[in-house]
Design goal:
With about 300 residues, this protein is of the alpha+beta class. It contains eleven helices and six strands. It has helices at about 5-10, 45-60, 140-160, 165-180, 195-205, 210-225, 230-240, 240-250, 255-270, 275-285, 295-300; strands spanning about 25, 30-35, 70, 75-85, 90-100, 110-120. The strands form two sheets. It has a four-stranded mixed β-sheet. Helix 6 (about 210-225) runs antiparallel to helix 7. The longest helix has 21 residues, at about 140-160. The termini are far apart.
Length: about 300
């Protein structure tokens, strides 16, 4: 991990005693839920087993050569909703959230919030989920590997300028491998919100400014606001110009909806005590990008109406 990231995380965890810190290989502290209410007439044990195996896979696999202490593990939520299950084949939605601590505070912020609606895989109760660094063993482990590396990439980007490069490269390798598998959700141009599109939103030249935003918004913005609210908020205001650039270059990019679902509610709080001119500037910047989000954007412009 970078020195900057280590120092930031240490600042967040001052309440944890040094003696309680344990160095571990695993990167994630994942909360996993499997919702099978839409499926009728099936032994529910298969879904409980699946939940346990996904939880074990995410929390006990070493996905990289980075070293994390117990307090540095990345907090994430993995919510799988099973829509269909027949002949050992599941069709699901996967809601994913990645959480980041804010320097020297108890506040946490959402880095990534996205629903993957193109999740299908074969699974029988008791089937093991085994990690293979070079070639995922099946589509479920490929999906989990992809998002694990994307989470690492986004988190590292938020602590150092474009610090997650090697994890984006690993995620790209997984996408390329799975594109030849015939499984849905991986193919370029299949739709605008599949896994290939999500990755491209961070790596394509027209939209990769989102990575600059990740660093400036979080490390120089939110982290700074703890001790200097006006200074940190000013950096956040400047960083939001990346959203306008992405919209101008690629108005259908999934990066825009990921940012919306991760940050619009938070921005209401960020600007609750900002000067009127600053609130108006942010409103004027975001309103053309998110014209259907008038209720939330109005709360940025007029916090006294909240």
């Amino acid at each position: 991990m970078t020195k900057e990231k280590i120092s930031a995380i240490i600042g967040v965890s001052l309440m944890i005693s040094a003696g309680a810190e344990v160095v571990c290989a695993q990167e994630f502290r994942a909360t996993v839920e499997v919702n099978s209410q839409q499926v009728e007439g099936t032994n529910r044990n298969v879904f409980e087993t699946l939940k346990e195996q996904i939880s074990t896979y995410m929390n006990e696999t070493k996905f990289s050569d980075a070293t994390f202490s117990s307090m540095e593990r990345l907090e994430c939520n993995v919510y799988l909703t099973v829509g269909e299950y027949a002949d050992d084949h599941m069709k699901c939605d996967l809601q994913l959230q990645l959480i980041r601590p804010v320097y020297n505070s108890t506040y946490t912020t959402t880095l990534f919030n996205f629903k993957d609606t193109r999740v299908e895989f074969d699974y029988r109760e008791g089937d093991p989920l085994n990690y293979n660094e070079t070639q995922p063993e099946n589509n479920l482990t490929a999906i989990l590997d992809f998002y694990a590396n994307l989470f690492l990439a986004i988190d590292f980007d938020s602590f150092s300028p474009r610090g997650g490069e090697r994890f984006y490269e690993r995620a790209q390798s997984i996408v390329q491998q799975q594109q030849s598998s015939g499984e849905i959700g991986w193919r370029t141009f299949e739709d605008t919100k599949n896994r290939a599109a999500v990755l491209s939103s961070y790596t394509d030249g027209n939209t990769s400014g989102i990575r600059n935003l990740l660093y400036n918004y979080h490390r120089k913005g939110l982290d700074e606001m703890v001790t200097s609210p006006d200074k940190g908020r000013g950096v956040i205001t400047e960083s939001l110009k990346e959203i306008k650039t992405i919209y101008d270059n690629a108005p259908m990019s999934v990066a825009l909806s990921i940012f919306r679902d991760s940050k619009l509610d938070e921005l209401v709080n960020v600007y609750s005590k900002a000067p009127e001119t600053e609130r108006k500037d942010v409103y004027d910047l975001l309103q053309p990008v998110y014209p259907t989000e008038s209720q939330r954007l109005d709360k940025i412009k007029n916090p006294e109406q909240n």
